[in-house]
Recover the amino acids of this structure.
């Protein structure tokens, strides 16, 4: 039985950048659809009274090292966007507008935003930069920008974020397959093992 | 060149329980000594103004699931000690006293404390229970208890914890090999790869 994998992420999540290619590959290999669900993780952090570790703390310094190692293991470039975290809400809203029109191109947009942010270190809060990605995918610049600011899209991101929090999402990437939750680019092997087991 | 691996941990760290066997095996395979360095992680958390996630939070619930999965992957039993975290300072002091007398039996003690705590769910803050482990390893009950309360041992644990914090330790297990730091039972493959590269 083909069931969809729910994939919650935030466009400002460095570990989602590191895991994205494998997540797509795992879903493909298992013959499952991938339901991309960008959320505003900052809002969930705020509700949890959680702050990510400061860049100049012991944990922040280690995580920077770890991200560089994890990216290098997969031959991926890694650069911190400046500033970090960048405001990922425009990118998420842009995704929602695109996905309602063309899910495949919205998936391309997702890859491109993550690559620009963490492969090239660009600040992808820039609406002009998001517009030029959308235009490169064949969408109208002005319609994209208008869509991104529409009340419907704004409400959809809020609702999607609340739904994620309701399912226990507290970080990214988080994946749900057949009721099982997996958090972290370093737990994708568990998702894969689960899907292999479920396919038997 | 054989260099020692510095292994920082806290006796109340569930991920150290999950990683301990592999840590010992990696060091053995690489022909490296393993320098076991228990610390009082609570003191480091306090300085960092960090609290581990509450057991009834979304993250706390997920970590409980993750620990059960990680233990099951290795065929290890897993039970939360009650209470959790338990006060691990007596166990750490006991280790220091034992290690000064017999490092091999102190290593056995380490395995036994972790197994009792996370394999059997016992509260290993109990000095009587620690004494009975030490006695089972051939040490004198009273000498062990007196040693555990000695000013020298207390000062050694404080100094070791401060040194760990000074090296950037913020969680457990944390390993240092040749100046490189590795944090987490899920990063042991990186330690292993590093040692293989260093041995070429």
């Amino acid at each position: 039985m083909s069931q969809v994998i729910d994939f919650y992420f935030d466009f400002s999540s460095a570990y989602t950048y590191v895991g994205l290619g494998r997540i797509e590959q795992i879903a493909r290999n298992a013959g499952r659809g991938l339901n991309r669900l960008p959320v505003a993780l900052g809002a969930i952090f705020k509700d949890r009274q959680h702050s990510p570790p400061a860049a100049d703390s012991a944990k922040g310094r280690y995580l920077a090292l770890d991200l560089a190692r994890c990216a290098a293991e997969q031959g991926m470039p890694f650069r911190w966007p400046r500033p970090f975290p960048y405001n990922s809400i425009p990118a998420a809203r842009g995704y929602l507008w695109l996905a309602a029109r063309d899910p495949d191109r919205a998936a391309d947009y997702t890859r491109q935003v993550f690559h620009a942010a963490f492969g090239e270190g660009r600040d992808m809060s820039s609406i002009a930069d998001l517009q030029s990605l959308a235009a490169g995918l064949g969408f109208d610049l002005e319609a994209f920008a208008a869509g991104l600011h529409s009340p419907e899209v704004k409400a959809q991101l809020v609702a999607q974020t609340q739904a994620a929090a309701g399912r226990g999402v507290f970080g990214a990437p988080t994946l749900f397959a057949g009721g099982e939750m997996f958090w972290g680019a370093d737990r994708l092997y568990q998702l894969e093992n689960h899907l292999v087991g479920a396919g038997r």
Remarks:
- The longest helix of chain A spans residues 14-30.
- Chain A has a mean pLDDT of 95.
- The longest strand of chain A covers residues 5-9.
- The radius of gyration of chain A is 16 Å.
